Amino acid sequence: DDGGPLAGKRILLSAGGTREPIDPVRFLGNRSSGKQGAAIARAALRAGASVTFVAAHLDVPPPAGVELVKVETAVELRDAMVERVAAADVVVMSAAVADFRPARRHHSKIKKRDDVPDAPIELVRNPDILVELVRRRDAAGTQQLIVGFAAETGDNGADVLAYGRAKLERKGCELLVVNEVGTDRVFGLDENSVTILAKDGSQPQHVAGSKDEVAEAVVVRIARALDAR
Ligand code: C5P
Q1: Could you read off the pLDDT of 119-130 as tens digits, one per residue?
Q2: Pocket around ligand 1: residues whose beta carbon is below 6 Å from it?
Q3: Which helix (H) or strand (E) element contains residue 120?
Q4: Full-model pTM
Q5: Which residues are known binding-site members for CTP?
Q6: Which residues in 62-101 are b (16+ Cβ under 10 Å) and which e?
Q7: Is 156 considered catalytic here?
Q8: How far apart are CA 3 and CA 11, in angstroms?
Q9: Residue of the CA atom closest to atom 4 of ligand 1
């Protein structure tokens, strides 16, 4: 307890991108680097919190000073979160979770033989972890604060924010950090530009800067939301 704004608070945070195995050599993945999640973990540590960092695939080393839990798939990520969520004051879902996974994992490499069908990979939907965590929190009747992320690709900023508002509503979390992404921006870069939306209806907060600066703003916002309770 160093007296920071999150002193004594326990944060459960997911970061990185899940990888859904197709066969022993291939997977379905995404471009999440885990940088923004790692930056939030570091900012939360600086603010005095203890952090459990559930890491899917990362392009960066996990932050020092966290309790590290490594996962690969969405289902593993879900299990890791559910197992630890009851102990958390704040949950941050910054991981990029695959919406679908291959229906079955082939135990040997799929060969491009003539008898393989043209579309050999059947997909099934993954659980929405964020929605499940909100539901569990509501069932437990606790004051846990839950923060979601939304990576949107839009043709203009207005679309992205409209999507974000609808998503905040649908997911039921208190805060949603919305950013516009694309292969030419955000992923793997050190800069970010986000809008923080709040369920309490307060003004959308735009933050542009390094991922560390965005992380600071998110942590300040979390601390403020906790204080308001
Ligand atoms: O619906 P969408 O994937 O855009 O929502 C993003 C938010 O939901 C992120 O916080 C992400 O971590 C979370 N999510 C999840 N489980 C999924 C898909 C997304 O928890 N299957």
Answers
A1: 889 999 999 999
A2: 74, 93, 95, 97, 99, 126, 128-130, 148-150
A3: none
A4: 0.94
A5: 99, 109, 127-130, 149, 167, 171
A6: bbeebeebebbbbbbbbebbeebbeebbbbbbbbbbbeeb
A7: no
A8: 16
A9: 150
